[in-house]
Predict the structure.
Amino acid sequence: MAKTLTQEFTKGLWEEIAPFRLVLGLCPVLGVTTTIENGIGMGLATTFVLVFSNILIASLRNIIPSKVRIACFIIIIATFVVVTELLMQAFAYTLFLKLGVFIPLIVVNCIVLGRAEAFASKNDLLPSIADGLGIGIGFTLSLAALGAVRELFGANNLTIWTTPNSVIGIQEVFGTNFEPFTFMVQAPGAFVCLGLMLCLMNLMGSK
Amino acid sequence: MGYMEIIIGGIFVNNILLAQFLGNCPFLGTSKKMETAVGMAMAVVFVLVLAGVITWVLYAFFLVPYKLVYMRTIAFILVIASLVQFVEMFLKKSIPALYAGLGIFLPLITTNCAVFGACILNVDKELNFMKTLVQSFAYAVGFGLALILFAGVRERIILARVPKPLQDTSIGLVTAGILSLTFYAFKGMI
């Protein structure tokens, strides 16, 4: 084993942070990040699917015939997506409604299938869990970061979590006189904001 | 909702790439050259219309009557994956010229969120059969239009001097934002 478990875990947090370094799975990155809450929710749902599909694929990797492996991976991933969908309907229904079509779309998220093919199908159970967790948390963090920037400038709020009765987070960060920059929370702002964040990552990475 | 509204809405107002953010991986991946963009756009039109119709039939005549709606994610992805395989085999055998053009893009479509997302959106909106057909076609044409426009812009960007950290994907995303802004102007039409 070339890398330790910790290294497998931490590489997903910076070196191979999914949306920025690999530019994969951009649909949810752009689609749901109008608030931090949506970003975190989406990220955690994806992490759940990533970890459990990695576990199953890593344990079955010697049984799955290599010719039909992609089809098998997709079925395993789809199963866990359905589990996530049902769990979210039961325990986080408002969030489920907000994320809408993007929850079933985890099935076709290139990151999940990419990790299954590139990592879990070739490695043991424990490194696969570490890899899934690392990539998943890295994905969650990037979604939350993008959500934070867009929500801060676009709506003047920072909402971490909403319960039916209260909102955890800061409202009107820049005071009531600040006119929200609504461009940021709408579709074009997502592309521009992600592009600029990628530029920032490139700047920091080239040091 | 009339057919005209569905067509204009699907192509311009709710453009699947620029307003709904579905299918962004191929959007950034295949837009560096006009040739690949045209190939991808054609493959998507072909598969999206077929997949839209087939998943609708599956949903209306199988999943709903047998109360299996919660299984739709698995059912749809299986249908799309096998459809893509089938289309690939069929084209290889009977229309080799088209296969040579679309060939390498077909397998990529299985994991194209635009196809899967459009199928889910169609059944979520509870459209009837004809409307599903028209809506799928409109989404697919919108995808193709945005992809080809974007590829045209990107071919010109190569000639420009872009600051180093902004190069490639980064400037691509900013450009996509500006393109999305122009599509945003259609919002008032419906």
In short: The CA atoms of residues 28 and 101 of chain A lie 10 Å apart. The two ends of chain A are 30 Å apart (CA to CA). Chain A has a mean pLDDT of 85.
